[in-house]
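Data availability (excerpt). The following record was deposited with the supplementary files.
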Amino acid sequence: MLDFVGTYRIGKFFLDEGEQTVAEESVKPKHRMVKKAETMREIAEKSSNPVVKEPGVIRLTFRYIGKPFVAVGRVLAKIGHKQPFKFIGHVLWPAYFRNSWKELRQVTWPNRRESWQLTTAVIIFATIFGVMIAVVDYGLDKLFKQVLLK
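Predicted structure:
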């Protein structure tokens, strides 16, 4: 496929016309090349002389096709400014559901590690509390049997 600047595009790689046949013939994987770091002078020269790119074919196509949609978008923006959908939402959804949704959006949910830590803490607390109640119940049972049944 020939791009607008005269290079062939193959997959993700842009090759000059002469390099195309070499790339098709060679199947060896290429080694990664590290780009040299730019000096401050090169960076300053780049920023002072910006390269003006011509818009591509796709961008130009969307620019001309998108003209009617811009007009429609402006009309929808004017309608949206009066927020008819918000009014419909207030009518359809009772205040309880709207406020519940707002509260849920404000919650900071724990991550996986915190969830496991909190779950473990609850299980340990419930086990210890259950054992304590069982011990007190057993002790009171024995005490009342000795006191009341004598």
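Summary of structural features: The beta strands are 8-10, 13-15.
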